[in-house]
Each structure stands twice: as structure tokens, then as C-alpha cells.
Design a protein that fits this description.
With 137 residues, this protein is mainly α. The protein has five helices and no strands.
Amino acid sequence: MYNNFFSIRKEENKSLQVLTAHINESMHKMKNLCPNNFNLQKLDEELTCMAMICTLPEDYTNFTSSVLLLRSLDKTMLQDTFHAEETNHWHHAAPTMSSKMDSISLATSGTKPKACRCGTNPVCMFCEKLGHCIHIC
């Protein structure tokens, strides 16, 4: 409901009164869905969760859809889910990066590159430490 609520936009051929009525109707529906013990602390937590979800780029569409199917939004659970998703993305990306690094290595006479071309103070894409590259890690 939050996602729908914050996605409301004024349509070109509709008045501001119609827009306001649509917003009020949406708010009424959200209030009806709230449990009796809903309070400002729970609202803040849910709004934080929605901000986390709404900031994700398009390549996270499937992940976002899955998260929005959950019955409730718990910030700690969502942060854990984000971490798991990021780890999943990283593991799927790692072989691709590794094969690219192998290609770079092969392109330089079949040996390790004489001079690293990753720039000064690179951050390793594998261990995330400063000062070396994935092909040296």
C-alpha cells in the first residue's frame, strides 16, 4: 500500500481536487489495514523499509517484488534480506569478473601483467580490501 500511495501522480487531464480525493481514499485504505496496536515507531520503521525498497534500481525488480509480498516489513529482517541479496549478486558476478581478469592476463603474453592497470589504491572486488586488485588477491 505504501508503494501505491507514494506512486500516486497527478494525471494531466485530472484536477488537483481529484488528486486530493485519490490520496485521501488511498490513506483511508491504508489506515483500515493497520492493526490496532500500530504506532509512530512502527510507522517510522515501515517508512524506513519502504525507502530502502524504493531506492533500488531496476535490476532489482524481481527482488523488490518478492520483498513486497511479505505480510509485514521489519527493518532488521529487511536489512538481512538486503545483505543476502547483495551476497547473492556478488557470488554470481564473481565468476564473470574472474574470467575477465583471466582474459586480461592472457592478453598480456600469457603471464601476469607487469604493471597493474587498476589505478592507485584500488579496492579489491573479491575481498573488498584497499590496496590490491582481484587478479592479485
